[in-house]
Amino acid sequence: MSEPPSSAARARHGTDRSPGNLLLLVPLLMLVTPLWNHDEPRLFGLPMFYWSQFLFVPLGVVCVGLVVRAANRRERAATGSAADGTERKN
Fold first, then answer.
1. What is the torsional sign of CA 62, 64, 67, 68?
2. Which of 46, 48, 80, 89 is the most exposed place for a label (fewest CB within 10 A)?
């Protein structure tokens, strides 16, 4: 049997199966229009469909930002530990 690849090997090949990547599914909820296709409740005169779509824009930005930040941390940790056991200072 073969060993699972180390985090440094994953960083080189570009595969990352972190559970945090599931946050990328949150912005896709805006595409499930039957959940949001309602007239009530209204916010500032806008039907629910419109204001919920506006709400998903910053929510999507936050989710993607969190995933990118976590991926950058994992990549820095993998490259730092792979470089002869020494950490780089930024």
1. negative
2. 89
**Is residue 55 within a helix (H) or strand (E), and if so which, with residue range?**
helix 48-82
Q: How confident is the model at residue 75 (pLDDT cuts 50, 70, 90)?
A: confident
Model-level pTM?
0.65
pLDDT at 41: 93
Residue 82's nearest CA partner among 3, 12, 2 is 12
Report the SS3 class of residue 72: helix
Residues above pLDDT 70, as percent of the chain? 71
Residue 44 neighbours by CB distance under 10 Å: 6
Greatest C-alpha distance within the chain: 63
SS3 content of the chain, % helix, strand, coil (to 5): 65, 0, 30
Tell me the C-alpha distance between 40 and 68, whole Å.
35
Q: Please answer whether residues 20 and 67 qualify as being in contact, where contact means their C-beta atoms are separated by less than 8 angstroms.
A: yes
